[in-house]
Design goal:
CATH class of the largest domain: Alpha Beta
Bound molecules: guanosine-5'-triphosphate, magnesium ion
Number of helices: 12
CATH architecture of the largest domain: 3-Layer(aba) Sandwich
Radius of gyration: 22 Å
Structural class: alpha/beta
Order of helices and strands: HHHHHEHEHEHEHEHEHEEH
Number of domains: 2
Distance between the termini: 34 Å
Number of strands: 8
């Protein structure tokens, strides 16, 4: 699993993480080295504020956590940042309604289908809702996915009211005693107020059928988008609330630092990551595994024991 994840993340790693690893391999880590790491983090799409916070923390801990190699210290900071207790509520009343949201092209429809497949494999019944009535062919795309993964799709015509589709999906899921209803939504542009309004309406309308719904709003972010993802997270969080992130296309980016920024800035957990176009390329996010995979490979000569131990002023390590 780590092997495949690490293969898929190769491109992400080559950018920021391996360069950081090279810096932290140096026998002594100076203030300048930490500044270099700060720059590398920013180049890797970590926002400037968060890069500063992370490197301040690194400076502090390098001095006290002497039993760990510098790289292990940084990895530990990142893992602590990204770790999330599993708060999944298993005592929900059926159906567990998931709203998949995000700007256009990030991978919402694909993620909805991949999620459906995961649940079906767990033995749960799944209904998909084609609430992207905006883009031509969106409905057919979801229907094709539905066939592939073995989930039925509730759909109206292109141009129909998205709220009505969502309403029907939840209603049908209740009537059929379905475990999970996953609603795909339009690739709305966050700058278009009316599209955000439509999403708010979907959320309002399904509450009429099931007041506790949506049980989960998953925001899909494209890892190759970089800093703009932060703006997107902000807007969607304000508009409909977001309980979790799906970060897609991690296989196709030379960066990948967005995950670190978003978790620190919004405290929204990353639930899944997309590492390819295939139906099995959606993985539950595991912080430790993710950070290890990002830094994986290479020689271990810099590991604990080979570090310079003297404590002079120009050197943090
Ligand atoms: N490499 C890679 N491609 C992905 C991943 N997730 C989605 N894609 C691709 O991204 C493209 C867009 O995916 P969609 O699922 O249609 O995106 P969407 O957000 O539903 O798009 P709209 O409905 O137009 O807003 C497709 O070609 C997907 O195969 C991923 O994790 N890795
Ligand atoms: Mg779509």
């Amino acid at each position: 699993m780590l092997g495949k994840l690490s293969d898929s993340l190769k491109r992400s790693r080559k950018g920021m993480f391996l360069k950081i690893r090279d810096v932290l391999k140096r026998s002594r880590i100076s203030n300048e080295d930490v500044e270099e790491i700060e720059e590398l983090l920013i180049l890797g799409d970590v926002s400037a504020d968060i890069a500063e916070e992370l490197t301040n923390e690194l400076r502090k801990r390098l001095k006290i956590q002497r039993d760990l190699s510098p790289l292990e210290v940084l990895k530990e900071i990142m893992k602590e940042d990204l770790r999330e207790e599993n708060k999944d509520n298993i005592t929900y009343s059926k159906p567990y309604v998931i709203l998949v949201v995000g700007v256009n092209g990030v991978g919402k429809t694909t993620a909805a289908a991949k999620l459906a497949k995961r649940y079906i494999e767990e033995g749960k019944s799944v209904l998909l809702g084609a609430a992207d009535t905006f883009r031509a062919a969106a409905i057919e795309q979801l229907q094709a996915w539905g066939k592939k993964v073995g989930a039925e799709v509730i759909a109206h015509k292109t141009g129909a009211d998205a709220g009505a589709v969502a309403y029907d999906t939840v209603k049908a899921a209740i009537a059929r005693d379905i475990n999970v209803a996953i609603i795909d939504t339009a690739g709305r542009l966050h700058t278009k107020h009316n599209l955000i309004e439509e999403l708010k309406k979907i959320s309002r309308v399904i509450k009429k059928v099931k007041p506790s719904s949506p049980e989960e709003v998953l925001l899909v972010l494209d890892a190759t988008t970089g800093q703009n993802s932060i703006k997107q997270a902000h807007i969607f969080k304000e508009a409909v609330g977001v309980n979790g992130l799906i970060v897609t296309k991690l296989d196709g980016t030379a960066k990948g630092g967005t995950i670190l920024s978003i978790k620190r800035e919004f405290a929204i957990p990353v639930k899944f990551i997309g590492i390819g176009e295939g139906v099995d390329d959606l993985k539950p996010f595991n912080a430790d595994e993710f950070v290890d995979a990002m830094f994986e490979g290479g020689n271990n000569g810099w590991e604990k024991g080979l570090l310079a131990q003297e404590d002079d002023l120009s050197s943090l390590r």
